[in-house]
Every structure is written in structure tokens, then in C-alpha cells.
Design a protein that fits this description.
Blueprint: H1 8-47, E1 51-52, H2 60-63, E2 67-74, E3 80-86, E4 90-101, E5 107-116, E6 134-141, E7 160-161, H3 166-173, E8 181-184, H4 207-237
Parallel strand pairs: 1-2, 3-7, 5-8
Antiparallel strand pairs: 2-4, 2-6, 3-4, 4-5, 6-8
Helix pairs in contact: 1-4
């Protein structure tokens, strides 16, 4: 060890930092594997036949991205407009409408699909306001809200929503609803609007890149520690 003398304080700093960086790298690898399993689970659920959504006991996390089937009718007088970009970036809205289930007797907020801004108002797509008893298939989605306080808020007064704030939407409508949205699958609608099938599975999986970043920092710390120790030892000799 004559050629290596890093000193006590650098050692006390370097060792725990390297251990932490290696632990973070391993954690990111575990997160990567967890994300792969989750994506496989979602893809399996989306490939399954739709099942009836229970009237009670629905846990949003358990039903997230599951295909469901509903029977009942829409209440178009209470539709909601959620701002959305779609169709090559064009500005528009997702049309969310209460669906009154005939057998269960409950209400489910159904995302009927996307319309361009020019078709936001129901009068501009009257032929697509389907009436009467129907059966629909869709994807269950759990609610979501803005991630940070500085993000813009939805405006219930103008009926323009920015997030899937299901409890707030239900309160605005004065309804008790199921704890999940249902995004209707692609289907033929008179007049062509709303355009269903808007479910997007977006699960970024950059954890391997993060793992290499933490590992690289750990290696860099070790290299710097070794070089410093050797340099310090040489100075002592000279």
C-alpha cells in the first residue's frame, strides 16, 4: 500500500457514496424489471375479452387498463370536455359523458373519444349523440390529476377539464359515479365524431439508462479515489 494513501476523510466520503450509487443502480434495474412485468400484464389484459364492470367494490388500481363491457344509455345533457391534442397535434377535446347502466343502476363516466375544437359543442355533431339502450366495450382507467401545483387547473365553470379528475367531475355533475373512467373502444359513430379508441398506454421505461448513469458515477468516484490515493502517496515519498 506504499503507492496508495488516500487518507481517512476521502475514504469516509468515497465508500458510502459509492455504496449509495451502486444501490441506486441496482434499484433502477429492479424498476426496469418491474416495468417490463407491468407492461406485459397490461398487454395481456388488453388482449382479453371484455368483462362486466362490477357495480361495487371496484378498486381503480386493480381495474386500470382492463377491458370492460357496459349496458345502458348516455346522458348527453351532462357531457364534459377534456382538453386534448390528437390527430397529428390538432387541438381538440375528449368527450366524457355519464353512462346510465340499465342493470346495475349506477353511473359510469365514459370517454366517448376525441373531437376537433370545431366539434366541441354537441350541436356540431348532433348525429353522433347516440340515444337509447346500447352495449359498449371500453378500457377502464383510473383517475388522475395535475402532477405539480404550478400546472394550470381545470375550469369547471367553462366545462373545460385538463386532467382525469373523476371525483371533481362527478361532484360538478352532482352524480355518484363508478371510481374509474371507461374509454370507449374504436367504433362506428354516425357523423364520425367523437372518435373512439383513444386509449394510449404510455409507460416510459428508461430505468436501464438510469442504472448505467448511477453505475458510471460509482466507477468515476472509485477511479478518482484511486488516482487521488496514488497521487497523495507519491507526494509523501517525494
Amino acid at each position: 500500500m506504499k503507492n496508495f494513501s488516500p487518507g481517512l476523510i476521502p475514504t469516509l466520503i468515497t465508500v458510502p457514496v459509492v455504496v449509495i450509487l451502486l444501490a441506486l443502480s441496482i434499484w433502477q434495474v429492479n424498476r426496469y424489471n418491474w416495468k417490463i412485468d407491468l407492461m406485459n400484464q397490461i398487454n395481456t389484459q388488453l388482449a382479453e375479452a371484455p368483462v362486466a364492470l362490477p357495480a361495487t367494490g371496484v378498486i381503480p388500481e386493480d381495474w386500470h387498463y382492463r377491458r370492460v363491457q357496459l349496458q345502458g344509455s348516455f346522458d348527453h345533457s351532462k357531457e364534459l370536455h377534456m382538453f386534448s391534442h390528437a390527430d397529428k397535434g390538432r387541438k381538440g377535446f375528449q368527450i366524457i359523458t355519464p353512462f346510465m347502466r340499465s342493470v346495475e343502476g349506477d353511473v359510469v363516466l365514459v370517454n366517448r373519444g376525441w373531437v376537433p375544437e370545431s366539434r366541441k359543442e354537441p350541436v356540431n355533431r348532433a348525429e353522433g349523440q347516440i340515444e337509447g339502450e346500447i352495449t359498449i366495450n371500453g378500457i377502464a382507467r383510473k383517475p388522475w390529476s395535475k402532477s405539480y401545483s404550478f400546472m394550470p387547473a381545470s375550469n369547471a365553470e367553462t366545462n373545460v377539464w385538463l386532467y382525469g379528475e373523476l371525483p371533481e367531475m362527478a361532484a360538478h355533475l352532482g352524480l355518484e359515479t363508478a371510481p374509474v373512467f371507461v374509454e370507449i373502444e374504436a367504433n362506428d359513430v354516425p357523423g364520425g365524431f367523437p372518435i373512439g379508441g383513444q386509449t394510449r398506454v404510455s409507460l416510459p421505461n428508461n430505468h436501464i439508462e438510469y442504472a448505467f448513469t448511477w453505475l458510471g458515477l460509482a466507477i468515476a468516484m472509485v477511479v478518482i479515489y484511486i488516482l487521488y490515493g496514488r497521487s497523495r502517496a507519491l507526494k509523501k515519498v517525494s
